[in-house]
Automatic annotation (TrEMBL):
Family matches, as InterPro entries: C2_dom, C2_domain_sf, C2B_Copine, Copine, Copine_C, VWF_A, vWFA_dom_sf
Pfam families: C2 (PF00168), Copine (PF07002)
Protein name: Copine-7
Originating species: Lonchura striata (white-rumped munia)
Keywords per UniProt: Repeat
Protein family (similarity comment): Belongs to the copine family.
GO MF term set: calcium-dependent phospholipid binding
Domain VWFA stretches: 318-517
GO biological process: cellular response to calcium ion
Gene expressing this chain: CPNE7
GO CC entries: plasma membrane
Length: 523
């Protein structure tokens, strides 16, 4: 997003948000649908002395009586009537009152979005149900203590997402755009609008600004097919090129109209281009040809399939279990250890393995499970490994059924030395590589489930977040079961239930693929 020079990273966030929607196979409530929310404001208060406010919207949701930030928009420079490109996606549970709060702040460059009273431009509360029922809600913004924020209003437009979960990756450039600046070249950016049935226009995407360049190459970007064209290939799209102005008065360079159907000609080696037209120049100038050319360099369509799509398509489930053998579990010879081998009853790890494994094995036709360990020193050299086969056969890490995993676990324990740290990214990446190889066959005939059993917080959180974001593009899901009585608060971050998980660089997961369960609650 352009002009987003200061939105700080999101704080903890509640239930199941995602940029590209995906039906969840085991939702805690009956999800009616996912809803996309678009936000715009009018007549915002001007908090800046030299130029206009730089607004940013925060979306908060009430969870157990507390307001939690779900997500935030880009920052739009010097604009009191902003239309935000950010699309907020929320789960809509029709049987539950889901309270939302939108807060608008004046951002301050690198300092980010402040939450001081003098940066607060106003807030508005409503429910998801109200927005869905009315489709378009415009309400006044209020300051603290119920005071009106002048004539400021906020408009929320909602759209329920259809079942088509594809997204498209687009790469645009332009050539020989008109120069709108006197002493330098134009600073172009591109906006794409979807034209709806009522002829209203919805902003789909706004590129970054390329400074001082009449032939800019914009960064490739991804949008859902639902957002781009309501999954209708012939729906009209309006694309506008502007010359960026830091005071918010952007100069119109030109526009063109197209459809997703036409864009698809850019797949493979082909390119599609359009004349960027300024209607005023076309009328005034006799020899006017265009105000430049916009080229679609590349288009990739990605279909996003849910777990249910794979199962119902006759797909085979491949099940991998990964067991935490770090020293924090305690010496297996000690009865207090989570790995204690009790001849009379299974330990916590075995209980968790059997409870979850028996559910998953119903979907695994060959009943062979890959079984891996991490965080231990292993023979023969007793070096630390974070992805070893617990049957010590690196060429074939599969065990026969849940019972085979149990037997391998019991024979493995006396041979290894519990160590550390708790790194799970290597195992996620290992399973993801197999899933990626499977996906390249184009058959999508296998779906991969990774069950991670661990006693505490992972040490390589940044690498784990990165690995999960990468894995979210693959036919793969991860179940993390917390064993024992540790504080698993940090582990909830990996589960999409507190908002969209992001990589350290800020890239969101394509779909929520992680389910975290403390075993003490599961029991």
């Amino acid at each position: 997003m352009p002009f987003a020079h200061g939105a700080a990273g999101p704080r903890p966030r509640p239930a199941g948000m995602g940029d590209v929607p995906e039906p969840c196979p085991q939702a805690p409530l009956a999800v009616l649908s996912k809803v996309e929310l678009r936000v715009s404001c009018k007549h915002l208060l001007d908090r800046d002395t030299l130029n206009k406010s730089d607004p940013c919207v925060l979306l908060l949701m009430q969870s157990q009586g507390q307001w939690m930030e779900v997500d935030r928009s880009e920052v739009i420079k010097s604009n009191l009537n902003p239309v935000f490109a950010k699309i907020f996606t929320v789960d809509y549970y029709f049987e539950e009152v889901q309270k939302l709060r939108f807060e608008v702040y004046d951002s301050h460059g690198q300092a980010g979005v402040g939450t001081h009273d003098d940066d607060f431009l106003g807030g508005m509360e409503c429910t998801v149900g109200q927005i869905v029922a009315q489709k378009r809600v415009t309400k006044p913004l209020f300051l603290k203590y119920g005071k009106f924020a002048g004539k400021s209003t906020i408009t929320i437009i909602s759209e329920e997402i259809s079942g088509n979960n594809g997204y498209v990756e687009l790469a645009f450039r332009a050539k020989k755009l008109d120069d709108k600046d006197l002493f330098s070249k134009s600073d172009p950016f591109l906006e794409i609008y979807r034209i709806d049935d009522d002829r209203s226009e919805q902003l789909v995407y706004r590129t970054e600004v390329v400074k001082n360049n009449l032939s800019p190459i914009w960064e490739p970007f991804k949008v859902s097919l639902n957002s781009l064209c309501s999954c209708e290939e012939k729906r009209k799209l309006r694309c506008v090129v502007w010359d960026y102005d830091s005071r918010g008065k952007h100069d119109f360079i030109g526009e063109f109209f197209t459809t997703f159907e036409e864009m698809q000609k850019a797949m493979g080696e082909n390119k599609v281009q359009w004349d960027c037209m300024n209607p005023k120049y076309k009328i005034k100038k006799r020899n006017y040809k265009n105000s430049g050319v916009v080229v679609l360099l590349d288009l990739k369509i990605h279909r996003v399939y849910s777990f249910l799509d794979y199962i119902m398509g006759g797909c085979q489930i491949h099940f991998t279990v990964a067991i935490d053998f770090t020293a924090s579990n305690g010496d297996p010879r000690n009865s207090c250890s989570l790995h204690y081998i009790n001849p009379y009853q299974p330990n916590e790890y075995l209980k968790a393995l059997v409870a979850v494994g028996e559910i998953c094995q119903d979907y695994d036709s060959d009943k062979k499970f890959s079984a891996l360990g991490f965080g231990a020193r292993i023979p023969p050299k007793y070096e630390v490994s974070h992805d070893f086969a617990i049957n010590f056969n690196p060429d074939n890490d599969e065990c026969e059924g849940i019972q085979g995993v149990v037997e391998s676990y019991q024979s493995c324990l006396p041979k290894i030395q519990l160590y550390g740290p708790t790194n799970v990214a290597p195992i996620i990446s290992k399973v993801a590589r197999v899933a990626a190889d499977e996906e390249r066959t184009k058959e999508a005939s296998q779906y991969f489930i990774l069950l991670i059993l661990t006693d505490g917080v992972v040490t390589d959180m940044a690498d784990t977040r990165e690995a999960i974001v990468r894995a979210s593009y693959l036919p793969m899901s991860i179940i993390i079961v917390g064993v024992g009585n540790a504080d698993f608060t940090d582990m909830q971050i990996l589960d999409g239930d507190d908002g969209v998980l992001r990589s350290p660089k800020g890239e969101p997961v394509l779909r929520d693929i992680v389910q975290f369960v403390p075993f003490r609650e599961f029991k």
